[in-house]
Amino acid sequence: MNVGERLKKLRKSLGLTQLQFAGRIPGKIDQTYIGKIEGGRQYPSLKLLER
Question: What are phi and psi of 14, to 5 degrees?
Fold first, then answer.
């Protein structure tokens, strides 16, 4: 399971949309960025993963 799949599984287990999930991450994270990570088109930085 890759990072995007794990992120999506976590988000869904919390019952959140991508927009809601992005809003809970400290700092300015866009919904489309979450979608790209989940889709495997973007990889999050270590700083983002630490949040």
Answer: -85, -5
**CA gap 47, 21 in Å, rounded:** 17
Structural domain count, the chain: 1
pLDDT digits (tens, 9 = 90+) for 14-43: 999 999 999 998 888 899 999 999 999 999
Query: Residue for token digits 């889709």?
Result: 39
The domain that holds 35 is classified in CATH as 1.10.260.40
Angle between helices 31-38 and 3-13 (to 10 degrees): 120
| DSSP state at residue 8 | H
